[in-house]
Amino acid sequence: MKKNVWLGIIAVLALTAAGWVFFSQPKKFKLAGEFATTGVCLSCKADGQAVFKKGEYEPLKCPSCGDVAFYSWWYCNECGYRFVPDLMKDGSNAPKPNPFSKCAHCNCQSVAKFDPEFHAPHGDARLPKWPP
To answer: Whole-prediction pTM value?
Structure first.
């Protein structure tokens, strides 16, 4: 009987600790339906994070200057550089990143969206010309 009480106390403490660790971690999104991306503004060259809602697409509004010129960083798995994909016009006002992008530094196709938790960049490749 005494052993079961101690096991119950240990289980409650373990669950409390796990809940505290889970809920105290920083989140990649602000509110339900809002997300953050790491990128750079091509207008003011500010590097940071921008918040966007589901259904919004790049370019995003820059948190520093307010221009709609914020694009997500991408990462090259070959050379380790961060880059913004080349931009293409699709008939809308603002150019969109090329979905079939290559690294702007080494021209490799082994690229992924940059995540500061998993990628340690060796540097930044040239940025696309702005305004396009």
So the answer is: 0.72
